[in-house]
Write a structure and sequence with these properties.
CATH class of the largest domain: Alpha Beta
Structural class: alpha+beta
Mean pLDDT: 82
Radius of gyration: 25 Å
CATH topology of the largest domain: Alpha-Beta Plaits
Strand content: 25-35%
Low-confidence stretches: 1-17, 25-45, 271-282
CATH superfamily of the largest domain: Pseudouridine synthase I, catalytic domain, N-terminal subdomain
Number of strands: 12
Largest sheet: 10 strands, mixed
Distance between the termini: 58 Å
Number of domains: 2
Length: 282
């Protein structure tokens, strides 16, 4: 004889999961899986009381982790660190983390950002050390600062990113000539896919600065500052407009920038608590 499933013990005459006449849900059964009430009720401690912006690195083997997986690693880290992060409502409650511009998978970065909302006051100067211990090797929190609740999101405030690109098998002279050709071009049209359709965009206005960097065994460095509005220009798109097309051995985001009073500044406000940690990446 096969064993009956637990709900079958109620009797074969009742439809599975059907409520009987006169049934009324109790307070406990009206709760979601996370313990939050579904009928507009919330725990008062979940209302965010402060917002903190953090800068972190992504170096070493962790660079092959996608943007979405990095977000999951952060969700696990805030739980392990035991910090009072505010959560969304509903059946599947998630910590309130808001990330900046997605980093292409395979690229390293010295300047990634995340905004975290907290349900209780925290000591901001202790956050870098606590979170770095809970994050995997290669992800290190370097600075944190409290920001006003009404400040614009990272996606909105970042105007440009600076990149260090190691171009394969090219000499500085050849790369320098190619850079000059790109900078003097009236327009540089690339084909992109947007909402399932192929569109043509002129990316020349988004190339803010471009110059030859240092020489390495694999090739020559290319330093670029690329615009992010209305759509980010990626290093692969930049290399695609060179003739012939260039290939990158390594790419690293060196910084993300916002414009304040006409000057380029880091998205962290003055007074950020810096952590000069030794890079653990291998």
């Amino acid at each position: 004889m096969h064993r009956l499933r637990p709900r079958a013990h109620r009797g074969v005459s009742d439809s599975a999961g059907r409520r009987q006449p006169g049934y009324r849900a109790s307070a406990l059964t009206r709760r979601g899986r996370s313990g939050q009430h579904l009928l507009g009720l919330r725990s008062p401690c979940e209302d965010p009381v402060m917002r903190v912006r953090l800068r972190f690195t992504k170096l070493g083997k962790i660079r092959f982790t996608s943007h979405r997986d990095v977000a999951r690693l952060w969700e696990h880290a805030v739980r392990r660190a035991g910090i009072p992060v505010a959560h969304t409502e509903g059946f599947t409650r998630r910590p309130k983390l808001s990330f900046g511009l997605a980093l292409p998978t395979g690229s390293e970065s010295l300047a990634e950002y995340v905004d975290i909302e907290f349900a209780r006051e925290v000591e901001v100067d202790r956050l870098p050390a606590r979170l770095s211990e809970a994050l995997p090797q290669g992800l290190d929190v370097e600075a944190a600062v409290e920001i006003p609740r009404g400040v614009e999101s990272l996606q909105q405030v970042v105007q440009s990113c600076s990149w260090s690109i190691l171009v394969e098998s090219i000499t500085p002279a050849v790369l320098g000539a190619a850079v000059e050709q790109v900078l003097t071009a009236a327009e540089l049209v690339v084909t992109r896919e947007r909402k399932g359709k192929r569109v043509c965009d002129d990316i020349r206005p988004q190339i803010i600065d471009l110059e030859v960097g240092e020489v390495a065994d694999e090739g020559t460095g290319l330093l670029a500052e690329l615009g992010t509005q209305p759509r980010s220009l990626r290093p692969t798109e930049l290399l695609g407009v060179f003739t012939p097309m260039l290939r990158a051995a390594r790419t690293r985001r060196e910084g993300q920038w916002t414009i304040i009073d006409g000057a380029r500044q880091d998205p962290l406000a003055p007074g950020a608590t810096s952590k000069h940690a030794e890079v653990r990446a291998s």
